[in-house]
Amino acid sequence: MVCIQIEGTIVAPNEPTNWDPKNPRIWLAFYNISKVLFHGNGVIDGSGSKWWAASCKKNKTNPCKGAPAALTIDLSSSIRVNGLTIQNSPQMNFVIGRSDSVRVTDVKVSCPGDSPNTDGIHITESTNVVLQNCKIGTGDDCISIVNASSGIKMKNIYCGPGHGISIGSLGKNNSTGIVENIVVDNAFLRGTTNGLRIKTWQGGSGYVRSVRYQDVRMDNVSNPIIIDQFYCDSPKSCQNQTSAVEISQIMYRNITGTSRSQRAMKFACSDTVPCTHIVLNNIILQSIDGTVETYCNSAAGFGYGYIQPSAECLSSSQKDIIQEKEADILTTTRTEHIIHTEL
């Protein structure tokens, strides 16, 4: 294995006009590499403050345009990243794209909570990825997983500030999104705008399935558990459409903490492509001030053990319950190998 050691601080140019307009999304990028270890106590600093100020999300009069990611690994396999700090990226901090067998351990990602589009670790078109012992604070999703990704395992993750741990968005512009075999095992989220989120646009196709969230604690999180098939990150209202990315076999086990919003659990699913096989086990979500509730629209599943707030709005017939218990076993079988697999 080739070792690349990073020490000290690597600092990006802080003036957006200094960047090559032909490659506006790239800073430190590695392509077509295999069996490489990135390690050390070094810091990768994207100097993103001027980019953030020019973002259309900061000021709607600004044009919306892409900005560099601090670190990108693409079209690669058998990669290890250990011990690095990535901070202040103009947009996404660390992108893993079109890669297989990637293990990221003891990595820290840091951006201000109001920095736009600064996803901490973004995974796209990748398989067999492990994120372990990572601390992420940023202005967008701490971890985002998008199309054509499977076999993703996150263990011992700290998230905050940020928008939580997200699958999606998927299905934008009537596209197909496929994500499956995902595990979040032991995470702590503090002060985030979302907790465990799956977000899809109307009009998409494909599926999200076999996802397990377990042993997750939340402190002062706005939307602790949320599935949103009506996601619309657009200045204009999104058109109602009947097709949707199908969401099924989603398990939440041992989820505890406090919610800033009344709807601690929200399953906002498509009327024509409902969410199915949602399984809840030992959920305790409380309000800092007041009561909390569960919202359901076209969502089927069941809960067992202690469930607070009640999730009786999940619709299931007896036949559905039997099928969902079978799906629970299937989800367990599909994801346990991720928990115990060492890359």
From TrEMBL:
It is found in: Secreted, Cell wall. Pfam families: Glyco_hydro_28. InterPro entries: Glyco_hydro_28, Pectin_lyas_fold, Pectin_lyase_fold/virulence. Its main location: secreted. Signal peptide: none annotated. Keywords: Cell wall, Cell wall biogenesis/degradation, Glycosidase, Hydrolase, Secreted. The keyword Secreted applies. The keyword Secreted applies. Gene3D superfamilies: Single-stranded right-handed beta-helix, Pectin lyase-like (2.160.20.10). Transmembrane segments: none annotated. The active site is at 163. Belongs to the glycosyl hydrolase 28 family. This is Polygalacturonase. It comes from Penstemon davidsonii. The lineage of its organism: Eukaryota, Viridiplantae, Streptophyta, Embryophyta, Tracheophyta.
